[in-house]
Amino acid sequence: MKFLLTIPILVASVVFPIRQITARGQAKDSEAADAARGKQVYAQKCEICHYSASREKKIGPGLAGLMKRETFHNRMKADDENLRRVIERGGKDMPGFRSSLKTAEIRDLIAYVKTL
């Protein structure tokens, strides 16, 4: 009889954590970067100074192929973290956008720049 009582407890202890993991996985998916939203952010905040389809300088450097390069124009390694830093803090003649862009918008913007 005791054996029959422990079966539901064992099942619950196995099923419940699996559901938690699934729920967490879904939450992470909803937080995933979205290049289409990033393109909208780019149009609003970046396009005025940076070409997206060229490496030519506009006001700032063209961003075509930026994330395929070894380094940015400022000699920082071309990776997501350094791009996030530049977006947030700004650069030589670029203002920082930490106070005007949300974390998710920056993540989306990085996803878009990676498509250029």
Structure explained in plain terms:
The chain is mainly α and 116 residues long. The chain folds into two domains: 1-31; 33-113, Cytochrome Bc1 Complex, Chain D, domain 2. Helix content is 53%, strand content 0%. It has four helices and no strands. The longest helix has 29 residues, at 2-30. It is globular and about 30 Å long.
Short description:
With 116 residues, this protein is an all-alpha fold.
Topology:
Elements: H1 2-30, H2 35-45, H3 80-89, H4 103-113
Helix pairs in contact: 2-4
Instruction: Give a count of the beta strands, DSSP E runs of length 2 or more.
Output: 0
Tell me what the CATH architecture of the largest domain is: Orthogonal Bundle
Shape: globular
N-to-C CA distance = 66 Å
Output the CATH class name of the largest domain.
Mainly Alpha
What is Rg?
22 Å
Provide a count of the helices: 4
* Secondary-structure element pattern, one letter each: HHHH
Q: Mean pLDDT score, rounded? A: 82
- How much β-strand is present in the residues? under 5%
Name given to the CATH homologous superfamily of the largest domain:
Cytochrome c-like domain
Unreliable spans are 10-16, 18-30
Helix share, percent: 40-55%
- Count of individual domains: 2
CATH topology of the largest domain: Cytochrome Bc1 Complex, Chain D, domain 2
Largest sheet: none
Please identify the structural class as seen in this structure. Answer: mainly alpha
